[in-house]
């Protein structure tokens, strides 16, 4: 009898955790589903990719993965925290017709285009596993405090709702700095659950486009998935972004496996001055949703991008490769394929035409 009481208590606690933990974001309603049903990517139950996308998540594979997580784990993260260059407010505010950006590790980028400050996937929290028993700590320290240094923002953009891109603590701290949110279809319900007015949020389906203060913004396809809990897998969309002005064009691939989408985006909206391309957190088991570094270089080429900026690395140990492997493989392939690259230090302000090409990671262990 005692066992049954304890079991019932555990089940109730688990159900309460799933239903009331704010980390999971907003729940899907009938109204949401009616909205999603207007998308060609909604199959009646979930969002789907343009091509069949499968991952090896069998029981045997997961057991092997867990074992590997504890093998040579010291190589998956730097021995010391990766330093972040202080934000140079004067340089950021200085008038320039050229785009600027600051990369804060992983996929966090502050972009300036036509004088507008746009923040993309601002996961600045210390841990990508806030609901898990084990922490997945960031390679840099005190990153939430960076938000205090940021300028007032014109817009925040979100590619999808995974924890390494959408962070509750970061959103709470950013709310007072921005009035405009552009997000993947289905992500608005999370922001609304966290206190952001629906009037401030615009959701995008693939190829949706709008003009924002002289900047054309388009949400583009990628090959990935979404979800924050046990019951909302693929219940919101995922993708990338294209920013165009009369003089500049920038592509953000978003998280993706190898895909024809890059070539399609290049044909429809390219060529691009810059392409921010995912190059890390890959594994054979989930190759369909995270491309290898060599494929990332090909994505830049396929999309007709002049300069590739590798992202989705130097932030968290979300796979089994060493923390330097993504950038080292990416740079080697880029050299072979004659693809130009930009490799800024974390926190460094980059101005178009003055792209950084140093190999700063080689100074760290």
UniProtKB/TrEMBL annotation:
Q: Which residues form the Metallo-beta-lactamase domain?
A: 118-313
Please give one Pfam family short name: Lactamase_B_2
Q: Which PANTHER family match?
A: N-ACYL-PHOSPHATIDYLETHANOLAMINE-HYDROLYZING PHOSPHOLIPASE D
Q: Name one GO molecular function term.
A: zinc ion binding
Q: Which GO CC terms are listed, alphabetically?
A: cytoplasm
Name the species this protein comes from.
Roseivirga ehrenbergii (strain DSM 102268 / JCM 13514 / KCTC 12282 / NCIMB 14502 / KMM 6017)
Q: What SUPFAM superfamilies would the database entry show? A: Metallo-hydrolase/oxidoreductase
Q: Which domain of life is it from?
A: Bacteria
Fetch the InterPro entries from UniProt.
Metallo-B-lactamas, NAPE-PLD, RibonucZ/Hydroxyglut_hydro
Task: Give the residue range of the signal peptide.
Answer: none
What is the recorded name of this protein? Answer: Metallo-beta-lactamase domain-containing protein
